[in-house]
């Protein structure tokens, strides 16, 4: 198994980025881990900006801060030309008996269902700048997480939450919820919500409302399981769904294949 993982790591190191468009450098993005307070405050500002636009909420001091930031690994993807942050997520490893302290446990009843697991990595607060939401930036961000998740954290399971806003987006939230209800047994995990919520049928909708959001599809393509039950996040006025991935079942070439066919 480790021979295959090392071979995959070498593939990642040698993977050439596509040729840039005009006025772009050869490598459009650069990846880094935020390691000091200044960098963490920068990502907190980025998160606040993205979540404010997406969910219409206000953050004190213009920073999205919570207690879960402490002890997390903060992953940052930047535009190499402008140095601005374009995508972000954070990681934290738990053992099963520690999962009650996770963000996911505040929204879903993962204890005691997952308490026997070991090396569980929670991924959260994922966000992408609107100009970079074609999927490429997110794929590159994920690609750069692989070495830490597989070899340093030795993750066996990945968990987290994926969200869809309600305000002005009721139709898409409704159809996304219905699609999650109809996932195959291999694509869903029956983890109950701490506050179960059923979106109402919209008065009207458009064809694009029936498309599942990009991040939801990314998780499904990675062989993740999603909860059919939604948690209503009152602060963000959105619906959250639990995400569960068994690392051994993740298609290792997912990111490379997605990028190669763009």
From TrEMBL:
InterPro entries: Acyl_CoA_acyltransferase (IPR016181), Ornithine_N-alpha-AT (IPR052351). One of its GO terms (biological process) is lipid metabolic process. The keyword Metal-binding does not apply. It holds the Pfam family Acetyltransf_5. Pathway: Lipid metabolism. One of its GO terms (molecular function) is ornithine-acyl [acyl carrier protein] N-acyltransferase activity. This is L-ornithine N(alpha)-acyltransferase.
